[in-house]
Amino acid sequence: MKTKNFKLRIQSSLPLINLKSKIIDYINDYPCCVNYPKCYHAKKQSNAILHEQTFAKDLVQDYLTNLNFFCTHYAIKYSKINYLQMWAFHTTVGQAVDSIKHNHIHDKNSYEISSILYFDNGNLGTTLFCNDAFTIELKEIKEQWIFFESKVDHEPHKGISDKERVVLATSIGLCLEN
């Protein structure tokens, strides 16, 4: 299958306000890695197994439903999920957003898709670097999943958050059908 750089916004079916405080607590209790806070991750980032938490069950179901919509929209047919990672970021009002250009390539044997879910509207967003000549500027729009290929470099916008900011991110590896 020939890949292309794409994105798709899909409205979440969940009232995220009910999850926001649980996710902030999770970030505080389960930081990104064993080297935290002396690591390259964002200042307030959770580990990548948020999807395994009981409180996140409906969130995971919403994600998978929207992932399947995305795959159907782009005719991506897969037979199984090789891996799933889900983590979250928290930025307080007036705090600078950690901005590092990166991608989510983890497994060369998988077709990898990333997503972002903003819990609120905000003044920042994310840049997708689709190639040397083409970028997409994404605004923070409340409760919308944004899907894109994991190989696409992306970077949170530099700046100061005008409100409390909670962002969910995912990376999934799919085994494509032949």
Can you write the helix and strand succession as a string? Answer: EHHEEEEEEE
The CA-CA distance between the termini, in Å, is 9 Å
* Secondary-structure arrangement, i.e. CATH architecture: Sandwich
CATH superfamily: q2cbj1_9rhob like domain
Structural class category: alpha+beta
Total domain units = 1
The coarse silhouette is globular
β-strand number: 8
How big is the Rg?
16 Å
Task: Give helix % range.
Answer: 10-25%
CATH domain class: Mainly Beta
CATH-defined fold name: Jelly Rolls
Q: Spatial order of the strands in the main sheet?
A: 1-6-3-8-2
Mean pLDDT: 87
Largest sheet, strands/sense/barrel: 5 strands, antiparallel
Describe this structure in words.
The protein has a single domain (about 10-175), classed as q2cbj1_9rhob like domain (Jelly Rolls, Sandwich), CATH 2.60.120.620. It is about 15% helix and about 35% strand. It has helices spanning about 15-30, 55-75, and strands spanning about 5-10, 80-90, 110-120, 125-130, 135-140, 145-150, 155, 165-175. The protein is globular and about 50 Å long. The strands form two sheets. It has a five-stranded antiparallel sheet, with helices on one face. A three-stranded antiparallel sheet has the order 5-4-7, with no helix packed on it. With about 180 residues, the protein is of the alpha+beta class. β4 and β5 (about 135-140) form a beta hairpin. The chain starts with 6 loop residues before the first strand and ends with a strand. The longest helix is centred in the middle third of the chain and has 17 residues, at about 55-75.
